[in-house]
Every structure is written in C-alpha cells, then in structure tokens.
Amino acid sequence: MTSGPPYGTGCAYLERGFEQTMVADIGDRELARMRQSVIMANADLRERELIKLASMSAALADRLRQRGIGDFEASLAAETSIVVFRVAFSRWVGTTEEQGLQEVIHETLDRLRTLTASS
C-alpha cells in the first residue's frame, strides 16, 4: 500500500486497506473464536490486543499519508478502520453464518456509510 495514487474519497481506501492488510492473517474462524475467548478472559491480553490495534492504526495512517492522504484524514480513516475491524471481527467470530470475514467487514462499512449519510 505504499505506491500509487490515493484510493479516492470516502471509505474506498478503507476497503482497499482491509483487503490488502488487516484480514490477510486471519483464517480459521474456530481458531479465531478460541483466541478471542482467551483474550477476553484475561485483562493483560485485552490490554495487549488494544496496543496491537493502536499500532495497526498508526501503521495504516502512515501508509495512507505516504499515498498522499492528508494527516487529519489519514488519522481519521485509520482509527475508523480499527473500529470497523473490531465490530466486524466480533460479529464474525460470534456467528454461525457462512460469511467470510471480508464480507462482514464490507457489510459493516456499508452500515457505517448508511449511518453517516443519514446524519
């Protein structure tokens, strides 16, 4: 995500960022479910997870800045990405539906678009 023009406006670069980075390492839902269970049961692991997500946000913001996105917009997009990811991931591990994580992320972004468009 370090070369080429900016993705455009709105949530388009968020979607691309998810496709290229954030969900690449997540595979098996059952394993993710067990991992999430262990994290939620341990305060130290929850804190570590929050630190990891903050680091991911900072890295994503840096990548967006490198692509020509303004500082404010890059920070806002990166933080929003983390929130969307957390909500989508929570939905994904908590359901028995056959949807993949990528689909749940897209649905979550669509709901965010709807919510912000009606404000």
From TrEMBL:
Domain of life of the organism encoding this protein: Bacteria
Record-given protein name: MftR C-terminal domain-containing protein
Organism: Streptomyces shenzhenensis
